[in-house]
Here is the input.
Amino acid sequence: MLPKTLPSGDRDGLRARAVSQLRGDGPNANSCAGVPDALRALYDLASSPATAAKALALLHELQVHQVEVDLQDEELRRTRADLEALLARQIQLYDAAPVAYLSIEPDTTLREVNLTAARILGLARELLPGRRLESFLLPQTHEVLHGMLAQLVQGSGATTHGALRLAGLDDAPRLVYASASRDPAGEWFLLTLTEASHAG
Here is the structure.
């Protein structure tokens, strides 16, 4: 039985391709050469007039099913390769974006950041997960950040905005504009930070 995730049309097409290969018409017609020993026993049963018809029918069904599985495996491998390539492109775009992207927990603990976020926060990216975003902010803007997240928790909007001040490494605070939204995949929040000098 084919996985239920395959639409009916795909199952029918897979079955047709499998039958075609068994008949020697398909591009992989030799893929059934390594038939398991159990199938050879069915060939032996086919030599008896009493069991020949049923044995041959079962043998054919098993062969078709084996080819279906092989075809599915090929399609899954192609799909996986396509998805991996797409993911690699998305990661490259994420890291190369001129806007800082961050994923944070409700207590502002950083989970994921892109390279722009690491530059704005002034630390190497691998050092940021586990630290709290508010530790990079001037104390007077902590409540702005928490207020943005609270609005999202209360369902006051899909996105909230606010101006935050980062405590610069040279003791010169920097203004950043923040946008926050709920992470649809979990309990985190997604933030973007844009430096005031680069905004608008």
About this structure: Residues 1-6, 31-35 have pLDDT under 50 and may be disordered. The longest helix spans residues 52-96. Strands lie at 100-104, 110-113, 159-166, 174-182, 189-195. The chain has five helices and five strands.
